[in-house]
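Technical appendix A lists one of the benchmark inputs used to test multi-chain prediction within the project. The record comprises two sequence entries:
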Amino acid sequence: MAHQQTTAASAAPSAGRGQQQGPGRPLRASDVIRKISQILGELLITAGVVLLLFVGWELWWTNVEADAKQTEAIKSFAQDFNGPLEPAAPDVSVDYGVPVVGTAPGYGGMIGIMYVPRFGADYTRPIIEGTDSGVLDTLGLGHYGSTSMPGAVGNFAVAGHRQTHGAVLDNIHTLVPGDKIYVQTADGYYTYVFRNNQIVLPERTDVLLPVPTQAGAAPQESILTMTSCNPRFGAQERIIAYSLLESWQPASAGPPSEIAAQVAQANGKG
Amino acid sequence: MYAWIFRNLPGPLWVRILTCLVLVGVALVLMVEFLFPWFSQFTTLTDSTIGLVQQP
């Protein structure tokens, strides 16, 4: 760009082009039209470049920013977390009884960390209270305040972006029934097992009900519901992923052995 | 337009090139900090919640 401008700048005076309006030189209509169309053309090129930059910003830079913020959130969570980072009894499944259900933090407060091995060995994302853009755009998974907390009988529902701002649920469609999804809170570890997907229209708030899509039904199970936009690079629909609580273990018991490495890595950074 | 701006910048050529780079940089920062986040609300790519259950 600089090169072009240089040539234009040096060429204009010597060639005595119409752009120069020296004193005594009458301004012709064709000069005005040429000038206007030149300015218009440059503005249009600028607009095109700005739009391309916007696409780059939305699809790439927002992820860079969000990843940094999320790493920070996980660090601060790890600093407050009390509990061993080694599995206590790796191959013995102990029944720890009814899961402890924490109280929901205020808007913007951190509930815990989600680990999804299917999304990659290093998939550790913070779960934050609230689902507006202030939470979802930088901090990762947002908890619907109207729904339960992890471990409670009912529906623990979170939302996350698919492509932009961290792309926390980009691979939500790759979940296979039986996949484990782990939620770590200050109280312990909740292991959910993925059950099924559902693709709905954006207005379908009934997927957030205690028993999803069944109004008035009394909940018997603990469900984890994840919502994201669908299709990829679009938002005409929502993709919903349902998982059922399989087991729970307190923080003092250490992490489940399958995610021990991730937990140690995520929490050891603090 | 851009040629006109470049011609009317003060200083020797290298100063003008430097000024241009700084101006482009400032424009980029302004876009990333203000224009793009504002424009982003008009794209639907970031809608991942259900209904209007948005907490304040």
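Confidence is low (pLDDT under 50) at residues 1-19 of chain A. The longest strand of chain A covers residues 237-250. Comparable benchmark entries are summarised in Table A2.
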